[in-house]
Amino acid sequence: MKQLNEYKQLTAETNRLLRRQEGRDVDFKVKSDGVKAEDFVALANARGGSILVGVEERKDKNGKQYGVVVGCSISDQIRQGLISTAASCRPSIDIAVRIENLGTGKPIYRIDVPEGKEKPYSTNAGLYKIRAEGQNIAIDPPLMKAIILEREADEFVARFKAAADELLKQINQVHKDLDKQIRRVERAARDAEKAAVDAGLWAAAVG
């Protein structure tokens, strides 16, 4: 039975990636053993992206780079190996691995790496990388500081938004409670006024 992550042809998204050159969010690999933990780390520390395995980089007559499908070996062992490599990163990176182009005899892997929520990420050996201009570059101290500050800023904004939402919820509840109390007082005043009128009419009738 066909699995949801296996496709006989190339998906539209993969075709779009093949027409591009290697960059910040796309990487081409000819073989699966060319995919390293630092590749996952580099993308997770940037904005995320995709790795296409079984794809060779070529250039057209104008020097523009693009990807050509050459195919690669496919097996559950390879797939699990890729997932295990991503899981060995610090913190673990949850990648999505799909197989495409199965019906052509040149299958490929497309590995989608999400942008990390717990930056910075490193390999199990403590190597910090980030994807930039089609390469994995080392994270130097100033860049490391910037990544950490960005993460802390995002966390602060998230906490502030949660606190603001909770405060707004409480204010709305106070307004509702106050409105109920006002209506209760108004109702009591109307009842008292009616009772006074009724009492006056009764006194006049018996007087």
Task: Describe this structure in a few short sentences.
With 207 residues, the chain is an alpha+beta fold. The chain contains 4 helices and 8 strands, in the order αβαβββαββββα.
If you had to describe this structure to a student in words, what would you say it looks like?
The protein has 207 residues and is of the alpha+beta class. The protein folds into 2 domains: 12-139, 2-Layer Sandwich (Methyltransferase, Cobalt-precorrin-4 Transmethylase, Domain 2); 140-207. It contains 4 helices and 8 strands; from the N terminus they run αβαβββαββββα. The chain has helices at 12-18, 37-45, 76-87, 141-206, and strands at residues 26-29, 49-53, 55-59, 65-69, 96-100, 108-113, 129-132, 135-138. It has a 4-stranded mixed β-sheet. A two-stranded antiparallel ribbon has the order 3-4. A hairpin with a 5-residue loop joins strand 3 (55-59) and strand 4 (65-69). It is elongated. It starts with 11 loop residues before the first helix and ends with a helix. The mean pLDDT is 86.
Output the structural class: alpha+beta
Mean pLDDT: 86
- Helix coverage percent of residues? 40-55%
What is the CATH superfamily of the largest domain?
Schlafen, AAA domain
Q: Shape, please?
A: elongated
- Succession of helices and strands: HEHEEEHEEEEH
For the record, give the distance between the C-alpha atoms at the N and C termini, rounded to a whole number. Answer: 97 Å
Main sheet strand line-up: 1-2-6-5
Proportion of strand residues: 15-25%
Strand element count: 8
Query: What's the number of domains?
Result: 2
- Named CATH architecture of the largest domain: 2-Layer Sandwich
Poorly predicted spans: none
Number of helices: 4
Cα Rg: 32 Å
Task: Write down the CATH topology of the largest domain.
Answer: Methyltransferase, Cobalt-precorrin-4 Transmethylase, Domain 2
